[in-house]
Design brief:
The chain has 145 residues and is mainly beta. It has one helix and eleven strands, in the order βββαββββββββ. β1 and β2 form a beta hairpin.
């Protein structure tokens, strides 16, 4: 039986299920993630697209093109409370990200990398055993298999 992790939005209208382990986990410090989360960074666990199931509720989407790379980022969020639930990015075709803080219990997630460190707040300390990248950790699309 595959590992299963569930979560949802603040108001409870949207629920999801993620099967298996994520293929990539990232903390992103870009200014867009700071604005979209209203926090210091975004925390995203990427799964194979077919391993994510929305079990209740509907999502509204917003598409953003990076002003630096012109790459697409699609955010899906609860139309009631505004909680970001999923993200898809042009550089990870076949993957769907889940906002890490929306899992019922996010403590099982292990952060593998911090990206866009050049935009990180000066008080933030990245653990020494985690990869760090001044910008994106990907320059070419990474096909998720």
């Amino acid at each position: 039986m595959p590992e299963v992790h569930e979560g949802g939005c603040v108001c409870g209208a949207v629920r999801y299920r993620a099967m298996r382990a994520p293929v990539r986990t990232t903390v992103c410090h870009c200014t867009f993630c700071q604005r979209r989360t209203g926090s210091a960074f975004g925390f995203i666990a990427y799964f194979k697209q077919e391993d994510i199931e929305i079990t209740s509720g509907d999502l509204k989407s917003y598409e953003h093109r990076s002003d630096e790379s012109n790459r697409l980022l699609r955010i899906e969020f609860c139309p009631n409370c505004g909680t970001t639930i999923t993200l898809t990015v042009e550089l990870l075709p076949g993957a769907r990200g889940i906002a890490g803080g929306t899992f019922d219990d996010p403590s099982w997630l292990k952060i593998e990398r911090h990206t866009w460190i050049r935009s990180a707040h000066p008080w933030l300390i990245v653990p020494p055993d985690v990869e760090q990248f001044p910008k994106s950790s990907l320059q070419q699309p990474l096909q998720i298999k």
